[in-house]
Write a structure and sequence with these properties.
2 copies of one chain form a homodimer. Helix content of chain A is 43%, strand content 20%. Chain A is an alpha+beta fold. In chain A, the strands form 3 sheets. The first copy, chain A, has a 4-stranded antiparallel sheet. In chain A, strands 2-7-4-5 form a 4-stranded antiparallel sheet. Chain A has a 3-stranded antiparallel sheet with strand order 9-11-10. In chain A, helix 4 packs across helix 5, helix 6 packs across helix 9 and helix 7 crosses helix 8. Chain A is globular. The two termini of chain A are 30 Å apart. Chain A binds a DNA duplex through helix 8.
Chain lengths: 254, 254
DNA sequence: AGCGTACTTTGATAACGATCAACATCATTC
DNA sequence: GAATGATGTTGATCGTTATCAAAGTACGCT
């Protein structure tokens, strides 16, 4: 920790803080993000790729459906929702993105983005030109491997969500959702049992195929039965095992 | 057509039919499958990769959940369902695969397959060792591009299905499903308005998050209102526009 | 050809979540 | 610190789809 601070101080002399900040090599998310599983030497190849950082304010759109696909974004801090708006105006949340996760893979197929991506809080992302990422991944096998892993993870995660949407009842959905969030917070070094929801009941409901009132009711029921404590957006998981029993299922879509 | 037959006959003299059959260069699915968008020269690099074909009888399992991931399969003929079995024994169909489509991408992340893949009819697949495909795609940019496109397509398709499962009512789901099948049959040179369902009502229901009785009832209703004609597994789409109106939505998950 | 099995259709009833509505709480702004 | 709008909670009722049940149809097998 001390060492990192020293490096950052040094950087303020030799180069701008911004330039250093976007170096994957020093990024504290390197075990979650693109560099995961890569050797330090290979990660250095990434440094040149990830040149720009971008701040996105709460409620701002990072990516618009319909816009040309050029960049992937890695979430550095904050969180996002991805949503699809259908022809007839229905708007559905298809995912939530947290730090270290990649945004934009939906655009590869048609060279056009399919989903909107909106910040749930003030956030920061690293922009990665996809064309250059493809190039580099032809030269760096570990990067190629990791890119494939990330895409596969997205595919598998969505399959889990399909099971949730296709066969689970409201309580199972909400329990699965909370446990998924818990796991992701823990993976990022935060508490797995106490956290703040960054999204509204409506967004949770949209994601889980439920109405906001149902989400609220189920959470109140979990509160009454002492599975969780919930007050507005503040969640404490009191009985993880009990929550797990409610889900009755293995695949976690988050 | 005549030309193809000649080539096949010739092959029986110079090499075994099997060896020729697995060459992507001559495959009639090359516009749907991995070779799509690749130059003939690049496709030749695939020929060496796709060495074995495999026949799978109706009801047989091509891929088991939990088994080690080594191969991708491209469907050459027939069709498959992919399903996830959850811890508590629920079984959910997560997709249907038709000719030219790739099976096995779920295994990349963890090196272990997540879904079961079962033949809906007697079918044939080409096996592709994934490690070698990765290698080759580092050398052949067009192959890399196409692999990424296919994975992205899977991601986008699943997002569409999430919208279906999350926000559509029974009639909309079934209508979307039928139109999706129609489109896929047309892409393969078959009639878009008249086809045989390869899957049971129960499998359709599982996929759409409905019970088999609901699927049956909705189809009967569509039959009564002259949108389709349906007798058991034989479908005729009488009024595609009308069906489209029932869905009211743009994104097609199939 | 006849039998058995798997699949499909249709009906009656029940349950779950949606909808409508009213109120409470929180955050933001002036 | 009061006012406003967004978000969240809770209650009453309704509607869609699940469930249970029974009969009908197609298909494979000997």
């Amino acid at each position: 920790m001390q060492a990192i601070i020293e490096i950052q101080r040094a950087s303020e002399i030799t180069c701008t803080a911004k330039e250093l900040a976007v170096r994957c090599t020093n990024c504290n998310l390197r075990e979650l993000c693109l560099p995961q599983g890569m050797t330090p030497e290979d990660v250095q190849r990434l440094n040149g790729l990830v040149t720009t950082r971008k701040r996105v304010k709460k409620g701002e759109r990072l990516q618009h459906a319909g816009e040309a696909f050029k960049l992937l974004y890695a979430v550095r801090s904050g969180s996002f929702k991805t949503c699809i708006t259908t022809e007839d105006g229905r708007d559905q949340v298809t995912g939530f993105k947290m730090s270290g996760e990649l945004i934009g893979l939906d655009g590869i197929e048609t060279n056009t983005h399919i989903v909107d991506v909106i910040a749930l809080e003030d956030s920061e992302v690293c922009a990665i030109p996809f064309a250059r990422l493809e190039e580099t991944s032809r030269e760096v096998a570990s990067l190629q491997k990791q890119l494939h892993r990330i895409m596969s993870r997205e595919i598998v995660g969505e399959q889990g969500l399909m099971v949730l949407l296709g066969s689970m009842r409201a309580e199972e959905r909400v329990a699965t959702f909370l446990l998924g969030l818990s796991r992701r917070f823990r993976a990022r070094g935060y508490s797995a049992t106490e956290f703040h929801l960054r999204m509204t009941r409506e967004e949770i409901g949209s994601y889980l195929g439920l109405k906001l009132e149902t989400v609220s009711r189920v959470m109140s029921r979990f509160h009454e039965t002492k599975l969780i404590q919930i007050k507005q957006k503040h969640v404490v998981i009191l009985n993880p095992k009990g929550l797990k029993d409610v889900t009755g299922i293995a695949i976690s879509p988050l």
